[in-house]
Design goal:
37% strand, 4-stranded antiparallel beta sheet, 2 helices, elongated, 89 residues, alpha+beta, 4 strands
Length: 89
């Protein structure tokens, strides 16, 4: 069973990018949204199995946006697969 939830990344641009890269390497990120004052400024969908070379341009774009726009936040949509519960006999 898969569950979807959102995680807000906070910190300096470098810290946010490091967190983002770590999450993408874990392989459970579906999409990244950059918001400013609650309004979506940019959205980057990521497909399953994305590799480090593919995330580099997305990370560069997110880094540039967070450096240029004040008061922005980064939100990551994650997928978590939960083990199926087995019935107790």
């Amino acid at each position: 069973m898969e569950r979807t939830f959102w995680q807000k990344l906070e910190g300096t641009t470098e810290q946010v990018l490091a967190q983002l890269k770590r999450l993408v390497e874990e392989g459970n990120v579906r999409r990244v949204v950059v918001k400013q004052k609650g309004r979506t400024v940019a959205e980057f969908p990521l497909t399953a199995g994305v590799i480090g070379g593919v995330i580099a341009p997305v990370a560069a774009a997110i880094g540039a946006l967070t450096a240029l726009i004040t008061g922005c936040s980064i939100e990551v949509e994650k997928i978590v697969t939960e083990p199926a519960s087995t019935p107790v006999p």
